[in-house]
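From the pipeline queue, job 12 of 40. The input is one protein chain; the requested action is below.

Action: predict structure.
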Amino acid sequence: LGIDEVLIYCVNDGAVMSAWAESQGVPSDSIIKLMGDPYGELTEKLEMELTHAGPKGLGLINRCKRFALYIDNGEVKIVRVAEKEDDPAGDDEPDVTLAESMIEAIKELGGNEEL
């Protein structure tokens, strides 16, 4: 599919994200990079703030929706958000944001069939 880089980020700090990458066995030279958004600035710019009352009522503030983007040469081509009325955080059904789903969506755009 010609993927150069896979970025995974959370509203968290870089130290936590580095530890998470290490615990998942992501080598430092991998195309997969885990990054922190400690102040939620990227989340806000992307308009992916989790604002539903349910998670906020549990003390989960300044959180990010579960989402995946496919960006090609600076242009957002695919946006997938795993949220439903009864699952605003997308924890129960994250399928649309998982790698398999994104690969299929990229293929549908005319990407390389080999992956």
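Job complete. The longest helix spans residues 14-23.
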